[in-house]
């Protein structure tokens, strides 16, 4: 009896109607939504994976596309039409070299501890550098390591993937791509022979490769 009552309360919806519901929710939200978050806003019985797959196909050649960002979904302008958005005024600020290097290490080595970041960079990492990256919502705290002291780790966020147009961290450019783009050169390691601390870098300096990580 309970099963028949439930079935009558939640009749199966046509796939086209399910797609419309998912489409409406995604268009109305500014931030990417996970499937779990979508399910909370939709009626029971929705074939969410099927509806998302159908919408992704439908928008594949449109001016906007349904894209997967980490574990979430969102509508974004088609990459080849991005130049049409250039009229919008965007205020940018340059990240210091310390912040760029720290962000790159976290992105390529996550989950990574502060001590590991310092070991890779060869210099200490100021708290302000990590605070800035977390304020931008590009970096967040990860799980603690099961090692003495239980150090916390750092990982990149969905906002980081969204900002740089990546589906996952696996889509980060490789060494050859970075070198081709001019983001790797023969510059000596940070600090040179004597080393330096993060305090030697200030926001706004024109060290390369700053353009890669301009913040909105």
Please write out the topology.
Layout: H1 2-9, H2 15-28, E1 33-34, H3 35-41, H4 48-58, E2 64-69, E3 72-77, H5 97-109, E4 112-113, H6 114-121, H7 127-135, E5 139-144, E6 152-156, H8 158-163, H9 175-180
Antiparallel strand pairs: 1-3, 2-3, 4-6, 5-6
Helix pairs in contact: 2-4, 5-7
Describe this structure in words.
The longest helix has 14 residues, at 15-28. The protein has helices at 2-9, 15-28, 35-41, 48-58, 97-109, 114-121, 127-135, 158-163, 175-180; strands spanning 33-34, 64-69, 72-77, 112-113, 139-144, 152-156. The protein has a 3-stranded antiparallel sheet. Strands 4-6-5 form a 3-stranded antiparallel sheet. Residues 1-10, 183-197 and 199-216 have low confidence and may be disordered. 38% of the residues lie in helices and 12% in strands. It has 9 helices and 6 strands. Strand 2 (64-69) and strand 3 form a beta hairpin. It has 2 domains: 14-85, Winged helix-like DNA-binding domain superfamily/Winged helix DNA-binding domain (Arc Repressor Mutant, subunit A, Orthogonal Bundle), CATH 1.10.10; 97-213, Arc Repressor Mutant, subunit A (Orthogonal Bundle). With 216 residues, the chain is an alpha+beta fold.
